[in-house]
Amino acid sequence: MHEYAQDAMTYVRNYGRLDLFITFTCNPKWPEITNQLLTGQTPSDRHDITARVFKQKIVVLMNYIVKQKVFGAIRCWMYSVEWQKRGLAHAHILLWMFDKVRPDHIDSIISVEIPDPETDPELHSVVTTNMIHGPCGTQNPGSPCMQNGNCIKRFPRPFVADTISGIDGYPLYRRRSPDDNGRSIIMKVKGKYVVVDNRWIVPYCPLLSKTFSNHCNVEYCNSIKSIKYVCKYVNKESDMAVFGIADPNANDEVMKFQLGRYVSCNEAIWRLFSFTIHERHPTVVHLAVHLENGQRVNFTEANAAQRAERPPATTLTNFFYMRKRSFQRRKKGDAVAGFADVYSTDSLGRIYTVHPRQDECFFLRLLLVNVRGPTSFNSLRTVDGVLCTTFREACQCLICSKNDSHWDLTLADATVSAPANQIRTLFAIIIATCHPSNPNALWEKYKDEMVDDILHRVRTTNFNFDIESNDEMRNEALVLIEDMCVLMCGSLLSTLGLPAPNRSRHAAFNLELQREKNYDLDEQAERVRKNVPLLNAEQKNVYDSLMKVVDDGTGGIYFLDALGGTGKTFVISLILATIRSRSQIALAVAYSGIAATLLEGGRTAHSALKLPMNLLMVDKSTTTSAQRPRIQRQRN
């Protein structure tokens, strides 16, 4: 799936931002499904029918879009099918168009308003049945989309008189209020009737909704920055689950854990039918990146020696072979004007991405990007007639004879497809090992791309997507970059030509610490006041003993053991509330996720302390840096 996401970014690199992002969901009430059910059956009883019908619907939808060009000529497209533990399938579709969708054309394609029931009753029925979010919020606080009193999907959306094209992400679509001729309906939610207006409508295309009568979300994408998240989301891997095998006759609650893919019944049928999960056009051809004789070799015991002696060819070795000899071009594709016997196809090419920690392969890739017409691995390691020992040495010698434009191009290429944390890692490697002449100029040019994930995290945490990047976020990025530089070369940023980060500001920006200090003191104090009198004598003795240790600051390790149902969780929760009511930090850590959910703010020990999954591996240390936010939280 990572490969598919990189292929999607190849489209972005060649053709710019995508235009439309469509989520097409299976509707179990489609007549093609219900007409095939036997008496007493439901769609969940016949996943073979729902899978076949949804596959046919996707084929029809893609023909509708690509061949019939309902949105215009499509330059390239990609879709992936997923299930997300909810049973029925849905497809995420990305579309790049020849004629880009202009902001003034958005309203002709996408709507977020309730249709007129008199002029178009069919569309009105489809939208009110399939395209209403929730309602949630105060009308339904128990909705699955609610977290900490806020809707993670940001509903209800504000009323907007006219569509506004946003700077980043999705635009603000026109949502007229009832006072501005906007419509509303009354629907029943949790046994009570509520008014639903345009604020609760999910963006849809009237043409597609009326044609397919299902949940079909259509979004306009107007920013390159949002594309990386969209492409990664569309091509994410299958859901995973941790499950345990319990022995009812054993004292241990859980004897063994397994980590595996979660495959629902519908997904299993889909795979048994060999239906495609991912499709795209045009084809993306990959140039392999591997060291000499480092390509992957598949072998058996019978042919191991033969395969080792003659390893298989790769696109990289074939490229070297073609460069060494004159070859006859296959006359395939469309003739290129002005070039005799040269033909082109709509296929695109890209070089596999390599993580900077793969030292030699990473520098081999840099040389492949910047050296024209290499004929072998040795030719890549040759600079000014001198054969270098390693690709890293060759890369450094090559760059020493040039200016910093190479690193500018390297970072520019990374910002198109790589997430912000990988861009920071790449930048740290460049300034720590390659010594560019003006690292501060590179930082100033690409600092916004390096804080993109920090900005996204802050927006999500605060449920405010209007927040813009600021000095605190850039300071946090500098702290992370400096931590990597210290590990790689033992130097601080101030010695490498970059501004030194403010560590105290970084601590103030520590979200882990803020989360633990964000409890309502009055609420915690009220919980203590109400529950302390409810403690029995034995519970009160435990409570007083532990609180005395806290008040004295002596610390210690205590083990609370009692039968189930005797109030262990009640006492521990009360101790946590007492400490938090004093504006102090109390971490609730448990061995299992189920136990952690019983405590307010509970975390598993593996997550909070970064413990290895197998605690018997005594030679394996934790992976937490002393400068990480969670360590600063624990110190407090």
TrEMBL record:
One of its GO terms (molecular function) is ATP binding. One of its GO terms (biological process) is DNA repair. InterPro entries: DNA_helicase_pif1-like_DEAD, Helitron_helicase-like, P-loop_NTPase. Pfam families: Helitron_like_N, PIF1. Its EC number is 5.6.2.3. Keywords: ATP-binding, DNA damage, DNA recombination, DNA repair, Helicase, Hydrolase, Nucleotide-binding. Residues 1-95 form the Helitron helicase-like domain. Residues 535-616 form the DNA helicase Pif1-like DEAD-box helicase domain. SUPFAM superfamilies: P-loop containing nucleoside triphosphate hydrolases (SSF52540). Belongs to the helicase family. This is ATP-dependent DNA helicase. It comes from Aphis glycines (Soybean aphid).
